[in-house]
Amino acid sequence: MDYIDPHIHMVSRITDDYATLARMGCVAVSEPAFWAGFDRGSVDGFRDYFCQLTEVEPRRAAQYGIQHFTWLCINAKEAENVELSREVIAMIPEFLDRPGVLGIGEIGLNKNTPNEATIFIEHMELAIAHEQSILIHTPHLEDKYQGTRMILDMLCGDSRVNRDRVLVDHVEEHTVAEVLDRGFWAGMTLYPISKCTPDRAVDMIEMYGAERLLVNSAGDWGPSKPTAVPDLIFECRQRGIPEATIRKVVYENPIAFFSQSKNFNFQPRDGQQAPAV
Description:
The protein is an alpha/beta fold. The chain has one domain (about 5-260): Alpha-Beta Barrel (TIM Barrel). The chain has helices at about 15-25, 45-60, 80-90, 115-130, 145-155, 175-180, 200-210, 230-240, 245-260; strands at about 5, 25-30, 65-70, 100-110, 135, 165-170, 185-190, 215. The protein has an 8-stranded parallel sheet with strand order 1-2-3-4-5-6-7-8. Helix 4 links the parallel strand 4 and strand 5 (about 135). Helix 3 (about 80-90) runs parallel beside helix 4 (about 115-130). The longest helix is centred in the N-terminal third of the chain and has 20 residues, at about 45-60. The mean pLDDT is about 95.
């Protein structure tokens, strides 16, 4: 089954991972801007990173028949540096018209601090001003529920935010219902340690259905598995989930959400039709 990984940090993966993803059926990836394994110290460091995301990674992916899309921001882990964050936010518009740039993300909270909230709101303002979609990072472990509620309240507190253009990622059993009930898209991240597992993700599909629900691997610097989405497909089949439901979650829903971005120029494999959105 063809699938799209809507949240995977390929800058942290070796080129062989692209080959493995292609063999497993991955036809496209979406890479949010995030932490580089260390805190960067200058706006020029982020400018180089954005060049990597918009120039280098699409070329690496294309060698294996995978289409690469990206998102831009300064992430929540580095948002405590408010001065640098504002310099980066001011620089981002230089890149918004580049091919494959889908919007602002992954923005959100890390430790739920006032500085993180300030920079989150300023990213929101940037997205609104430039009519961009938004991809949200919710905190980990014990901070997740409180942080998710804080994020949803900030989003819902601004009537200019189009909730249909916001994907709230890293949802778990205790956050997914509120994300969906408030009208946002929800992303389940499959991790070997924290976040979610394939069997828990299938539980959520069974409980909430496939509408506005996506699944991803994150595939970042820490313990992670870039082929986690095929693991989800396997678990779905083991549980008897209909093929149409699986395809909706791993292929059609990413296309439906990403198609709201003007730079989403996805090309299905030869002989296939893109789903109607």
